[in-house]
Amino acid sequence: MNNNLYGEYFSPLLSKNKHFLRVMKLVFFSLFVFIAGIFATEANSQIAKVTLSKENTNINELINDIERQTNYLFIYNINEVDLNRKISIHAKEKSVAEVLHHIFKDTNIVYAMQGNNIMLMKGGKRMNKVPNSDTTPVDRKRITGIVVDEANQSIIGANIIIKETKTGVITDTQGSFTLEAPVGATIVVSFIGYADKTFVVSDKESYKIVLRETSETLSEVVVTALGITREKKGLGYATQEIKTNALENKNSNLVSMLSGKVAGLSISTGAVAGAGSRISIRGERALSAGPSSPLFVIDGIPIGSGAGSQTASAQINEISPNDIESMNVLKGAAASALYGSAAANGAIIITTKKGKKTGGLGVSYSGTFSRETPLILPKLQDQFGQGNNGVYVGSNFGSSSGYYPSGKNDNYDESWGPRFMGQPMIQFDSPTTNGNRAGDTYLSPEIRGEVIPSEWVAHPNNIRDFFDHGSTRIQSVALSNSTEKQSFRLGYTNTRQEGLTPNNDIKRHSFNLNNSIELNKWINVDAVVNYTKTNRTNVPTLGYGGISPMYFFCWMPLSHNVNSLKEYWQRGGLEGTRQFQNMASYNNPYFVMYEMSNSSETHRFFGKLGITLKPIEGLSILLRGGTDNSWETNCRQESYYKNGGNGYYNNNQFQSYNNNYDFLINYIPKLGDKFGLSVNFGGNRMESIYKELLSSTGSLIVPNIFSFSNSKEKPSVSDRRSKKVVNSLFGSLLWDYKRMIFAEFTGRND
């Protein structure tokens, strides 16, 4: 049975800094508990004999045949050993060592054996000589040793290989090794992230090998403008990369997940489901959100600076966090010069996930659930109630029906009334003898009944009681696979979020396809497709005005119980035409959230198709086309405003089409060991088309029937369209000396 437990622990892609190498030691320790003591000599493999006669057979089948004929178990990394490579072999009663030498001849795969285990790994030089099993090694001696780094810390899993052979061992959890080798043989010691070291077997029996880190291996690489990969130390500006596992507390607002993750990044997020965020890098540049927002780029395609406002939708939030591999923040104009003026405030480069290599079709699932509560609420005085100069007498509460006389300060919007002492007072929610309320002022006294005074007490939790407990549910499933020539990933994310305010929620369906195919060694094709459908309900209006629920709380006295406002219609047949409230100059906040509602539906499609050509070594040509299209319909439905009016209805439609076509030529010539050069030249054509159709009416014939055919007056209609085309040429040149001194030149013309 094949076993790939060796797997990802030895992947060089994961070793990028010294700290990680320390962490790797802990991983190796766990691995060695299971396969402790895997070190071997070539002599062990002379015992078992196998017979193989195969023509044009892949390595995987040969390994299975050896396991069936012997008690050996192979352990290897499927990303390092090419199991699909085909060879022919005819061996009769040959030792396993001879067979392995033949199978991996002229490759960089070596083996180590202990008992019934055979480990395959990268390392050592290619071997052209096959040892004869009928001869006995001459002058072989057993040597021991330890491998450490410059800080004298043991290195676990270092390769100890006899040069010009495939015989070797790896160090154990103490960094120690034991090996049988001929006197005079050259031993090669290697480990990921360190420079190789050699020594010659002499009369000594014990050796201490010190490995030094290699700066080239440990150089951190980041994705910069236009998808160009650069060493971080060679950048002349600030940048910061965020991996997907750092995006904790996933929610429907992607930008808000960056809060506290990037130095110099300022984010202000509204506490409403479906809203955007105000985002800026290194300070604000204007009072409005747009001029300060950085450019967002997904898989090399700019999608604008649509972080949105705290109360409006945001284009960037249409991206599912579960589809993101990494985000790189380029800070300042110098960082994003290749994008032109659109990235004057910096750029956020987003790379989506690709297929990962698995034994078959990989399936992954991610589910998150979170609950939200208001963090900070205003502190209000709770000693005095509604009124002025200590006077309050409840009667008509500001209504103008004529049934009841005017009260004293019972429509007053400040708290200078009587002190709270539990005394009986007529209030808007006081009960009546007929089962109605004192605030049902549009009912005659015979119908409403006589008011029964209630206690004059404070309600300090009014604002907290108004807010709901918000929740977010995000469920994501993805299918992926990767082979030597193709990678594939298809993901779906379902998002459900309930806001902190009543009747505010968001529902989103996101689909992502990322596919890359290597047609041959010269041509690679990759395609990314995203589709998102988002429904938002009742994103509350913020600010100063009667359609904002918080506007009411600016003035509401604590003598009023906000829970009494949940039944917001007047009783007695007046449901649907008159509000129930305590201050006629303001809208009931529950009435605002349920009867002055807004909704929107957004469909968005964006993606790219790219072809990379590599005609010669060091030269690559990228041809790419991308699109970002969205269709949005939003409407607002307002019932009778305050205690009168005829209602309001609007229906707006927006369409935007953004297409980008570009080419990029990248050339990295070989200039020797001291100098390095990277040249980029490209061009872009951006086409942007925008359409909007706005329709509204402020007068309805029949209340609560929201249709333009129910309009008393001619609806107001406006139609606006625009088109913008930008043609650009850009380029950059990066020169370095010994990877220590860098000089870069960048230019763009639009």
Task: Tell me about this structure.
By secondary structure, the protein is mainly beta. An eleven-stranded antiparallel β-sheet has the order 22-25-26-27-28-29-30-31-32-33-34. The two termini are 61 Å apart.
Keywords:
five-stranded mixed beta sheet; mainly beta; disordered N terminus; eleven-stranded antiparallel beta sheet; 750 residues; single chain; 34 strands
Oligomer: single chain
Overall pLDDT confidence: 80
User: What's the N-to-C terminus distance?
Assistant: 61 Å
Structural class based on helices, strands and sheet pairing: mainly beta
Low-confidence stretches: 1-46, 124-138
- Read across the widest sheet, the strand sequence of neighbours is 22-25-26-27-28-29-30-31-32-33-34
| Rg (C-alpha, Å) | 36 Å
Number of helices: 8
Structure summary, number of beta strands: 34
Residues in helix, % = under 10%
What's this, in brief?
With 750 residues, the protein is mainly beta. Helix content is 8%, strand content 39%. Strands 22-25-26-27-28-29-30-31-32-33-34 form an eleven-stranded antiparallel beta sheet.
Topology:
Blueprint: H1 18-34, E1 49-58, H2 59-69, E2 73-75, E3 86-95, H3 96-103, E4 109-114, E5 117-122, E6 140-148, E7 159-162, E8 168-170, E9 176-182, E10 186-190, E11 197-200, E12 206-210, H4 215-218, E13 221-223, E14 229-231, E15 239-243, E16 265-269, E17 277-281, E18 295-298, E19 301-302, E20 324-330, E21 347-352, E22 362-372, E23 424-425, H5 445-448, E24 454-455, H6 462-466, E25 470-482, E26 486-498, E27 505-518, E28 523-537, H7 549-553, H8 589-595, E29 596-613, E30 619-638, E31 648-667, E32 675-697, E33 716-737, E34 741-749
Parallel strand pairs: 2-5, 6-12, 18-21
Antiparallel strand pairs: 1-3, 4-5, 6-9, 7-8, 7-10, 10-11, 13-14, 15-20, 16-17, 18-19, 20-21, 22-25, 23-24, 25-26, 26-27, 27-28, 28-29, 29-30, 30-31, 31-32, 32-33, 33-34
